């Protein structure tokens, strides 16, 4: 299993970023996919999840209404569209399925 995140970077408060996770090594369309994040000195936390077909999504209360998770089963990718970013969204963002994790991509929200 390989999960490779991309799309992180530095953005000002109120800005947007779109994260992508490219998956390989398993039957992507069969699996629930999630995004987690970990800020310095804090535990890793759930951000958003999407079922195999993309018909059901779940979000942490802290990002609800600002973040959107989506997937493209034809391309084995899952995305996280992040809008109205806040300083407190700063973290390393990880793609996850079952017990497997990507290497993470850094998102820094700062003026």
Describe the structure.
Helix content is about 0%, strand content about 50%. The chain has about 110 residues and is mainly β. Strands 2, 4, 5, 6, 9, 10 and 11 form a seven-stranded mixed β-sheet that branches.
Report the end-to-end length measured between terminal Cα atoms.
37 Å
The chain-level mean pLDDT equals 97
The total of beta strands comes to: 11
Helical content class = under 10%
The H/E string reads EEEEEEEEEEE
Estimated structural class: mainly beta
Largest sheet data: 7 strands, mixed
What attributes does this structure have?
single chain; 111 residues; mainly beta; seven-stranded mixed β-sheet; four-stranded antiparallel β-sheet; 11 strands; globular
Give the gist of this structure:
It contains no helices and eleven strands. The mean pLDDT is 97.
Lay out the secondary structure:
Elements (H helix, E strand, L loop, with lengths): L1 E5 L2 E3 L5 E8 L8 E6 L6 E6 L6 E3 L7 E6 L4 E6 L8 E7 L2 E2 L3 E5 L2
Parallel strand pairs: 2-11
Antiparallel strand pairs: 1-3, 3-8, 4-5, 4-9, 5-6, 7-8, 9-10, 9-11
């Amino acid at each position: 299993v390989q999960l490779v995140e991309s799309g992180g970077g530095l953005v000002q408060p109120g800005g947007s970023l779109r994260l992508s996770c490219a998956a390989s090594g398993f039957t992507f369309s069969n699996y629930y996919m999630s995004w987690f994040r970990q800020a310095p000195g804090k535990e890793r936390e759930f951000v958003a999840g999407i079922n195999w077909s993309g018909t059901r999504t779940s979000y942490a209360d802290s990002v609800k209404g600002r973040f959107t998770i989506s997937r493209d089963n034809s391309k084995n990718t899952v995305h996280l569209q992040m809008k109205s970013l806040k300083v407190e969204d700063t973290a390393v963002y990880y793609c996850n399925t079952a017990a497997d994790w990507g290497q993470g991509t850094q998102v820094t929200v700062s003026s």
